[in-house]
Amino acid sequence: MNIRAYLGGSFNPIHQGHIQIAKETCELLSLARVTLIPGKNNNLKTLDQSITEQIRLKQIEQAVQNTDFLTVDYRELNSKQDKSYTIDTLKLLKKDYPENKFVIVMGSDTFEQFYRWKEWQRIIQYTNLLVFKRANHHPKKQYNPEFTQWVNKYQLKKEDFIHALYYHPAPTKNHLLIIEMKQAIAISSSQIRLTNKTFV
């Protein structure tokens, strides 16, 4: 059973927090690599126009070259669609790798907005979700009731999540794992843009 882990985002810019999440994903799930999927026109974020797409891609490529556990998939940027959505990308990945299991990786700040994603309740049909709690993120005390119920339905403990991922044959029910980062990195893309620095 092949397992493919993906870390999507605007990467505006990519930084050590993204890289650390990818590294800890590989360690946690015993994977060789995590694939970055840079997206276009994020509906929930305003991109910093001072960071052009050319600069953004150059920084991503530099990050990939500097590690042995990152690769990149440009399908969302190469899409003819004006906007990219995770659910649409997952459908394409499922066609390309029908026998594989998927894990979408994200930080807790991104997950807090998950219920606003396109067809968010259907995403779990295509992939597992791995959420890392970020040091600089202070989550809401309570999600909306529908989202809270959804989280409770799919969330597992670490050992159960890994066991289900590796030993439950596909197709099977996907799950959610929310876990603390081993190495706390309290920097975000927005903070980097404010200080005009690059952390790659």
Shape: globular
Count of discrete alpha- or pi-helical segments spanning 4 or more residues: 9
Q: Look at the structure and give the mean pLDDT.
A: 87
What is Rg? 16 Å
CATH top level is Alpha Beta
CATH fold field value: Rossmann fold
> Strand-residue fraction?
15-25%
User: Can you tell me the CATH architecture?
Assistant: 3-Layer(aba) Sandwich
Looking at CATH, the homologous superfamily is: HUPs
Parts with pLDDT < 50 across at least 5 consecutive residues: 188-200
Summarize the structure in words.
The protein has 9 helices and 6 strands, in the order E-H-E-H-E-H-H-E-H-H-E-H-H-E-H. The chain has one domain: Rossmann fold, CATH 3.40.50.620. Strands 3-2-1-4-5-6 form a 6-stranded parallel β-sheet. Helices cover 38% and strands 16% of the residues. The longest helix is centred in the first third of the chain and has 14 residues, at 16-29.
Provide a short characterization of the protein structure.
This protein is α/β, with parallel strands linked by helices and 200 residues long. Helices cover 38% and strands 16% of the residues.
